[in-house]
Amino acid sequence: MINVIVELSKYTILTLMIVYTFHSFFMVMRQDREEERHHLGRQRTMIFFIDTISFMVIYLKTWNIMVLIYYGAVLIFFVIIQILYRIFYRKASFLLLNNMCMLLSVGFIMLCRLDLDAAFKQLLIVAGVSVFSLVIPVMIRKMRFLNKLTWIYAGIGVILLAAVFLLAQTSYGAKLSIMGIQPSEAIKITFVFFMASMLWKNVSFKKVIQVTLIAALHVGILVLSRDLGSAVIYFVVYLVLIYTATRHAGYLLLGAAGGSAASVVAYHLFGHVRQRVSAWRDPMAVYEKEGYQIVQSLFAIGTGGWFGMGLCQGSPLKIPVVKNDFIFSAICEELGGIFAICLILVCMSFFLVIVGISMRIKNPFYKLIALGLGTEYAFQVFLTIGGATKFIPLTGVTLPLVSYGGSSIASTLLMLAIIQGLYIVREDEDLESERHRKDAAKKLRERNAAREKYYSEA
Q1: pTM, 2 dp
Q2: Could you write out the DSSP letters of every residue in 370-396?
């Protein structure tokens, strides 16, 4: 009987995910407020049912009462965060909030299935950071001096990265964290703020050189620390923001050429890089060593097929570091390839919302911040999924909001809080523009009325 319930549940969960994904893209394309509220309500309902069905299946397969306690805690968290945003930020993007909750839900479900202790730790971190992040949007809205802290952003980034390089222990071939905290995740935010504050007003050649030197310092320290995944993300953000600010294709081409040359140099300098490239080229040839992770990941994806094995029916724990770097493979194995594609599309919808904010906001400083943070998010998703599917070599980065990792999920939640603040700023700009338009129309009507009165009296 339990196996029948598990089998039926995977199709129900898949159907709910497909409908949720459709609503996400529908709301990106449509701007009708009343219609949007209707679809947002449906999305929240689908998140609730996906969570309820998934945790029920995990409980039936494990008979662990802690699963139900965890489900209750997750449900309370989502209810509270939805209510608090509606109380404090009525102008926030609730599509962005729903997508955040959906991705967190998928992460909570998979972590509960893989490692319940890790799942509780993740929920505790998410709840704590979410409460703190509630003040971020109002800070973005009120603190008009953020574009003046250019060298503070640069100094924080360089000092913290240098501290990791000098003090951190090597883990999985790279120096990543100090006392369990990975500063490179938080510095993604300060790096974007640095570049935006440098380029929002002045894009002279001198400014571009200054930005390039500081960006090269960030990337260089990460390369020396062998945190190559973060180094690639920083470099891509640098290229995107330089091109967006200057609209000069030459900078983009020169940067891409320099990055390609640096990749070749890194391949010859670091054995860690050569191992990952070797595992990517032919993982079966090095199956017993560096190819083991990627082979197990591909086995899991292939085993799941289109519809998945069902929760607790696969063997994702055979993949090393599955809850951090390969959670996408576990999702494919147990929830199926179609569900995984929908997950990618939800991430894409997430990115499109952020790009839409960037395009519509008028303040150039905020515009660059939104684009930079959106690029970081999208490229990190690409690196994680690309590495798990053998599309690109492994980089060791996590899937935002889904994978286990305190530093990663904390920095992503802070990024999203900043983006919510930018969305509210954009709404304020729209209201101000509408007010100016109405004032101008009123003055025009008054002038026309005065002119008509003057001619009638004459």
Answers
A1: 0.90
A2: HHHHHHHHHHHHHHHHHHHTTSS----
Phi, psi angle pair for 175, to nearest 5°? -95, 110
CA angle 268, 273, 274 (to 5 degrees): 65
Residue 399 has phi, psi (to 5 degrees) of -85, 115
Q: pLDDT per position in the chain (458 positions), as tens?
A: 777 777 888 899 999 999 999 888 887 776 666 667 788 888 999 999 999 999 999 999 989 999 999 999 999 999 999 999 998 888 888 999 999 999 999 999 999 999 999 999 999 999 999 999 999 988 888 888 888 888 899 999 999 888 888 876 766 666 677 767 788 888 999 999 999 999 988 888 888 899 999 999 999 888 888 788 888 999 999 999 999 988 888 888 888 888 888 888 877 877 777 888 888 888 887 877 778 889 999 999 999 889 989 898 888 888 888 998 899 999 999 999 999 999 999 999 989 999 988 888 888 899 999 999 999 999 999 999 999 998 888 887 889 999 998 888 999 999 999 999 998 887 766 666 556 566 666 666 666 666 666 566 65
DSSP assignment string, 424-441: HHHHHHHHHHHHHHHHHH
Residues 6+ apart with CB under 8 A from 15: none
CA distance linking residue 64 with residue 41, whole number of Å: 31
